[in-house]
Specification:
two-stranded antiparallel sheet, globular, mainly beta, 10 strands
Length: 249
């Protein structure tokens, strides 16, 4: 079993849908071609697993650490109304989709190789060459990503040791949706047999040029939209990884 072989199979979860979602240099919200420079595994101090993607978007470097499990190692959460139903964590869906569209295989089937990557160290405030476990099959590959520019609170510890908003904000970029580079289709569309891309247009109509404001003050920005389904019937796909549909030559 490989590094990701202990993940719960998506056939044991509720089916995913295409959703248009809510509302250094940061890219404005939009769809970009990303060429992967590095994709490597990590873990939080609490035990949650993540993948960090470093990619080039037409000369702008995009970097994001995406958590695909909770601290228990689960890549799903239980439905609040029906505890027998498991839903894939949003971060797991994102990294699993990236793996599918660029390598033809889901995350659970990826092999890793140790590589040295320059990673920013917050204590020394500089990049440090660090050995990490990389999904090298994804390196150099390209996919399209629906990227959001997100406004978040700057937090600081108070006297009680809790992190609280300072009243200041910062912006980040976050991958919200993954599309195939060659035909613009999502994984959901591929699994549903949709022959031409439909969801990308809906995503752009809802999100292009709009910031997703997650700050407590909202910074005077109300561009975030309400979540909703992208394409009618999008949730009726078989979620089992079908490698032949994403096979790479």
């Amino acid at each position: 079993m490989g590094m990701f072989g202990n993940l719960t199979d998506t056939t044991q979860m509720e089916k995913a849908t295409d959703s248009v979602g809510g509302g250094g240099q940061r890219l404005p919200s939009g769809v970009y071609d990303l060429k992967i420079k590095a994709l490597y595994a990590g873990q939080s101090k609490g035990g949650a697993s993540n993948l960090t993607i470093v990619a080039d978007a037409d000369g702008t470097e995009v970097s994001e650490t995406i958590y695909y499990t909770n601290k228990k190692g689960e890549n799903f959460y239980l439905d609040k109304n029906d505890k027998t139903k498991r839903h894939p964590l949003p971060g797991f869906t994102t990294v699993n989709d990236i793996c599918l569209v660029v390598t033809g295989k889901p995350l659970a089937e990826q092999d890793v190789e140790e590589k040295v990557v320059n990673i920013f160290d917050f204590e020394s405030r500089k990049d440090i060459a660090t050995p990490v476990q990389c999904i090298t099959a994804a390196h150099g590959e390209t996919f399209k990503a629906g990227i959001l520019r997100v406004i978040e609170d700057k937090n600081e510890k108070n006297d009680a040791g809790d992190y609280v908003p300072t009243g200041k904000t910062y912006t980040t970029n976050a991958i919200d949706k993954v599309f195939q580079a060659d035909d613009d289709r999502t994984v959901v569309e591929v699994l549903n047999g949709v022959e031409s891309a439909e969801f990308l247009t809906a995503w752009l109509e809802r999100n292009k040029g709009k910031d997703r404001d997650k700050s407590s003050k909202k910074a005077g920005n109300d561009n975030a939209g309400a979540s909703g389904d992208g394409r009618p019937g999008a949730g009726n796909q078989d979620q089992a990884p079908k490698n032949s549909l994403f096979a790479k030559g």
